[in-house]
Design brief:
transport, 12 helices, Transport permease protein, ABC2_TM, cell membrane, transmembrane, about 260 residues
């Protein structure tokens, strides 16, 4: 037991490297997580942006926070799929029979999500800069943005882990992607909520994505974040804790 505790972080590092290698060899994952959000950003800015009034001179400035969240949401389905694949192949059982920390294999997938999403988001921001995005935010603001994005990634990763560990079919594992994609689309990510019908606006303003988008947008342009940052943090922390507890229960029940 002492050996397992002592080598938890080295074990987790090995699992992280294993999972990252799988991601780097998956062209489909790279296209969906990075290329598709960029294509969506190009479409909205250069095709639809002229017809959307957001109160900003450059629509890419308004759009970018939502695109970053879309990219993270795209990755959630792959987290679930990779976990499902390991479960079906008996990978976790093999690792659990070895003298390594039991949860290291699961945390390897979680950390892979953080690392791979961070790289994807950097690429998307670089493309946005080429499209005219400019931010007066300082280092502290960008560190706050990175923290919120990391927390959002953790939230979606732990949510995705639940069906990944418990699904009976690959379709069941991937079903989590649909509601996750739904939330950014009905939020302030693409248009201000005050342009929406009353019922849609009520939903958009009282779901997790809108306060997260508004907080990131305010930090990017040195605007007051107000209560939005606390609402965003409350959503992320509460859902992450719930999803983590539920996912670990499912994981531990596997023996």
């Amino acid at each position: 037991m002492q050996t397992v505790k002592t080598y938890f972080f080295p074990d987790m590092g090995v699992m992280l490297g294993r999972s990252l290698r799988h991601v780097s060899r998956s062209l489909d994952t790279i296209i969906t997580v990075t290329i598709m959000p960029i294509a969506m950003m190009l479409l909205f800015v250069y095709v639809l942006g002229g017809a959307i009034h957001t109160g900003t001179d450059h629509y890419v400035d308004y759009l970018l926070p939502g695109i970053l969240l879309i990219a993270i949401a795209n990755s959630a389905g792959y987290v679930s799929y990779r976990l499902f694949t390991d479960v079906q192949r008996g990978i976790f059982e093999r690792f659990n029979s070895m003298p390594i920390a039991r949860s290291a294999a699961l945390w390897g997938h979680v950390l892979t999500s953080l690392v791979s999403n961070a790289m994807s988001l950097v690429v998307i921001i670089l493309v946005a800069l080429l499209m005219g995005f400019r931010s007066p935010a300082g280092v502290l603001n960008w560190l706050a943005i990175a923290g919120i994005l990391a927390l959002f990634t953790m939230m979606l990763t732990w949510i995705a882990a639940i069906p990944g560990l418990s699904a009976k079919t690959v379709d069941g594992a991937g079903v989590i992607a649909y509601p996750i994609h739904f939330l950014p689309l009905i939020s302030s990510a693409f248009v201000p909520t005050d342009t929406m019908p009353a019922a849609v606006r009520a939903f958009a303003e009282h779901q997790p994505v809108t306060p997260i988008v508004e907080t990131i947008r305010a930090l990017m342009f040195n605007q007051p974040v107000g209560k939005e940052i606390w609402v965003a943090m409350a959503w992320c922390v509460a859902i992450t804790i719930w999803a983590y507890i539920f996912a670990m229960r499912v994981y531990n029940k596997r023996g």
